[in-house]
Amino acid sequence: MRARRIDGPVPDRFWPKVDTSAGPDACWPWTASLTPDGYGRMSWHDGDIGAHRLSWILAHGMPVPDGLVIDHLCRVRHCVNPAHLEAVTQQLNLRRGVGTNAAKTHCPSGHEYTDANTYRACGRRLCRTCRGPSRQDTHI
Q: What's the whole-model pTM score?
């Protein structure tokens, strides 16, 4: 569902929807509209924007640099505390993610993903030990 457009200066519309009661070091939950994935959303200009992105923009006074995304250092998707947000590449954001394949250090059989024991196929990391010697010619 799309957030309803409310006129007025952005900070005056944004901050009343943030719970800062736990203090400056805690997560600041977004209390308004959430996406099905749990991210805050707010109408902005002619569309919607992620509340975490808007928080970063308000804190830094500039748009998110091209090629970067906003990473929740706290891993709480609806947190908008600027101290918990960092502009990073999508690759770094995925590596930092909890439960993502990029964060895994070992294959499902327990073999370590090292340069010597890992190759890529179809965008996936595969273990040379598990796949056997026929795959030894492909590198990361």
A: 0.67
As annotated, the residues of the chain forming the CATH 3.90.75.20 domain(s) are 10-96
pLDDT digits (tens, 9 = 90+) for 94-130: 777 766 666 678 888 888 888 888 887 776 788 889 8
Cα 61 from Cα 69, distance rounded (Å) = 16
Q: Could you name the CATH architecture of 10-96?
A: Alpha-Beta Complex (3.90)
For every residue of the chain, DSSP letters joined together read -PPPP--S-HHHHHGGGB--TT-TTS--BB-S-B-TTS-BEEEETTEEEEHHHHHHHHHHTSPPPTTEEEEETT--TTB--GGGEEEEEHHHHHHHSTT-GGG--B-TTS-B--TTTEEEETTEEEEHHHH-GGGTT---
Q: Which residues have CB under 8 Å from 69's CB, separation 6+?
A: 87, 88, 89, 90, 93
Query: Tokens representing 45?
Result: 């200009």
